[in-house]
Amino acid sequence: MNSGHSELASLGDFQPADVWQVHVNHIFYGTKGPGIHQHFQTYVSRDHRLAYALADHFFKHCETLPTEVPLLVQEWGVGNGNLAARMLDRLKEIDTEGRVYPRLSYTLCDYSQEILNGVEANPDLQAHAGRYATALIDARDPEGAEPGSLTWVLSNEIWDDLATRVLIKSQGMLFEEYLQPLIEPAVIQGDFDTFVRQFQNADLDVLKTHPPFLDQIVWERAFQRTDVGDWPFGDVVNKHMESIDDDIPTPVNVGAFGTLEKAHRLLHPQHSAGYTGFDYGMLSTAHLNRVGRPYFKLYGGQYTSMVNFPLLAEVGQAAGFSQIELEPQHAYVGRSLEEPLISLLELVQNHPKVGEMAPWDVDVLMLETLQALNTHYRSPYTSKMDYPTLPGTPKKQRKLIAQLVKNLSTRGVPDTVAYVTESEVRAVEKPLRKLGYREKDIQRSFSLNDAPIQFCRLTLR
User: Which InterPro entries match (predicted)?
Assistant: First the structure.
């Protein structure tokens, strides 16, 4: 394949997609640490509603257990610690008789010490001293707890970061995607050959000193004939590919397979609430076969893969789980709040003119929509949203954005991907109409049930 970029130089040879994905993500997390949160937000980075739903679910499960059973929870891939902090807040609040929270041991596990350092500095989590600990553990490693000891395992958006191979079926044969990283040498300060060695060796201490380069990488792609017989759960993968149409790139999240095996081994055989994971990807075979759907994304150089949830469910059964629940994440949280909900971002994306707007005008619309919602929305937490302007924003819009940010409520919607309910949106229909939203735009926002890529919940017991 020809990339069409003659000025680009290679950072390494073609290798299966999972090899380079794992390598570049190791560099991403190892060099940026807590700074990763400048590149993306998740549904748990600042919001509380998913955490509260999880806490309510776990509390109900614990009420069915004998009081002498220890409650050991592990979270794999911990972000900024907000999910754990808000879950513990909620558990403490609803445990009025002190039957659950005081005997809970919650361990936040991550393979990056940089990330754990950021979590340990989280003051909201520090409020629960004695109930939690941190551990430098890779979710794919077999170690981490005594087999059969854990009550619950949960993770949020880690499967998309883990090793993922990509298959295409064509005329009865399987082909695997290979990647090669390329970059313009001018991006790198200093000797380019020396940098290539540092990149290939993942020399994190030295790579931290370089100006940002990960988001400058261009990925060349090629496909080679393959046999999945020696892959993890190769027989399951082979069977799965029979349901996939020709020429559809299909993620095979082999790294996630390892987390399922590990969870099955560590969870208590009778008392566990299972392994609950949240991520974004394809919910059904029909979504897998949707022509043109994405199968990877880049965030500031981080290489993430869409999660093949039907295949994870099939692997979970093969790994020994007998009960499997798979649904949209919105449905899970909405059931907890007893009404439909969406993210603020989804509402803005359904504005009739958003596709015609310059990026800075979309920022203005986002902030004006926030202000409208904040006349009704009240968060149980105090926070002030940080909303930096995009490079190249004209002076007029830059000044307007700064003023809008200054006026944001500290008890308002905490994040652009925070959940808002239908009643909260309906309560501010009049100011939303003034911003150009129509009734059909709001209705469409709450009826996006067939998108090829969705945030999903998978629970295995």
Answer: NDUFAF7_sf (IPR038375), SAM-dependent_MTases_sf (IPR029063)
